[in-house]
Amino acid sequence: MQPILSVRGVSKTYASGHRALKTVDLEIAKGEIFALLGPNGAGKTTLISIICGIVTPSSGTITVDGHDAIAEPRAARMKIGLVPQELSVDMFETVLATTRYSRRLFGRAGHDAYIDEVLRDLSLWDKRNSKIMELSGGMKRRVLIAKALAHEPDILFLDEPTAGVDVSLRRDMWKLVKRLREKGTTIILTTHYIEEAEEMADRVGVINKGELLLVEDKAALMKKLGKREMDIALVE
Ligand code: ATP
């Protein structure tokens, strides 16, 4: 089957001269949950930012559902929802206004029913008229996901969705991600946590110092590298 995302020979050297990504090749199947596992500074955000058209690669090609992400960035971006690490929302806005605005930014007008469904799926419906500043940390993260889903993307990128959250919120996030996949969304997430990759992903890619060291289905990876050894492998 044709992959929904194809990354070929992608590298990145920043203007500072830092080589953040060596040559990365990766294919993601439709409907898959893929975890990119690696320590701080491994190049996870750089890779996501390149795929989402935020950072220009130094070399390589990216195809998103048949669209060349460099030649047709808008068409490729329409297919992608990005949940960044930072809380990138106007705290004074309501949940509903933020989500609708995000949809309009992508030129998708109307379909309020779709937004309502997203808010219900994310258990944000009761908070739709609350200002974002009034929400708990976990709810704020859900707003970021609602915002990313507003334009009906096929692929959702979650950059460290559980960094700095407590165990119960982390479990909530895991459940949520699985529910989104059941609705047909392809999900790519980055994480520092082996247990998170193990819990959520169908396949895991291990990245370190800009190099995609291996990509395995979860079972094979866990067999190949015991948790302890994996921790050691990821020490910089
Ligand atoms: P973390 O888990 O800490 O978020 P990461 O795996 O997402 O890390 P990146 O943010 O992609 O890693 O960073 C990879 C490397 O590239 C790091 O050494 C970082 O300092 C460097 N880097 C990132 N952005 C830039 C930039 N704009 N200019 C120069 N170097 C950068």
Automatic annotation (TrEMBL):
Segments forming domain ABC transporter: 5-234
Keyword field: ATP-binding, Nucleotide-binding, Transport
MF-aspect GO terms: ATP binding; ATP hydrolysis activity
Superkingdom: Bacteria
Protein name stated in the entry: ABC transporter ATP-binding protein
Organism per entry: Sphingomonas tagetis
